[in-house]
Amino acid sequence: MLAMTLRYSLLTMLFPTFVSAAELRVLVLNGDSMPWAKLENHQLTAGFYFDLGHALAGQMGLQARFILLPRKRLIHALEKGDADILCNYLPVWLPGAFDWSTPFIPNAELLISDKQAGKPASLNAFANVRIGTVLGYVYSELDQALGATFVRDDAPSMRNNLLKLAAGRVQHLVINQFELEYQQRQGQLTTPLHPYTVLRSFKGQCAVSRSGQITVKALNQAITALQSKHELQRVMGQYR
Questions:
Q1: Tens digit of pLDDT for each residue in 20-61?
Q2: Buried b vs exposed e over 145-169: b needs ≥16 C-beta within 10 Å?
Q3: Tell me: the pLDDT tens digits for 119-152?
């Protein structure tokens, strides 16, 4: 990392116009929290996206630069070319005119329930039951299973949802397995839970701007190289 930083600084001094071409501009939702992102003074300083961005950039010989934006501006930034990649999404969650990397971040969407509450016996039995969700997120399995009887209780972030669960304001919520395991390991989710329901398993992808500075082919090559070196497994293992 030190060698990469020194190389980047030298390029900055000798060839100022080359600086932007030496960057991988990684887009990050400014409302994300750990394990995904640690934000300090409006800067990304740690978390899965921080480590993943540096790993991908380093593999491509670039310097990672992180751009924090609200959810409503993510698609526009990618389509306009103001950022190069946005990772850990699926096309169904983020429709837009950009390309998608190979799937490579294993995860699952879970429906969890407070053990002090009764858990409906089947997914269909959650009809007209309030379920904690995150504003702006798409829950296609619940939409399909429950239709108009899917009652969302939206919060601005998963952190808010977990606080609502701990306070008894919601008894059921949707969370991804990656985040659930992290919160439990950190001791930040102590609410006793029923066995969870897996809504679906998936592998997250990176959206790649068609007007950016890298191609989806180059990103896929970097992902494959990092997988072969077990670097991606190491990064993910820090947060699971």
A1: 459 999 999 998 889 999 999 999 999 999 999 999 999 999
A2: bbeeebebbebeebbbbbebbeeee
A3: 888 999 999 999 999 988 889 999 999 999 999 9
* Residue 214: both structure tokens together: 């890298």
The angle subtended at Cα 85 by Cα 143 and Cα 102, nearest 5°, is: 65
Q: What is the Cα–Cα distance from 34 to 159, expressed in whole angstroms?
A: 9
> Is the C-alpha dihedral spanning 150, 155, 158, 159 positive or negative?
negative
d(CA 1, CA 16): 21
Alpha-carbon span 80 to 201, nearest angstrom: 31
Q: Which of 103, 84, 73 is nearest to 205 (CA)?
A: 103
pLDDT of residue 189: 86
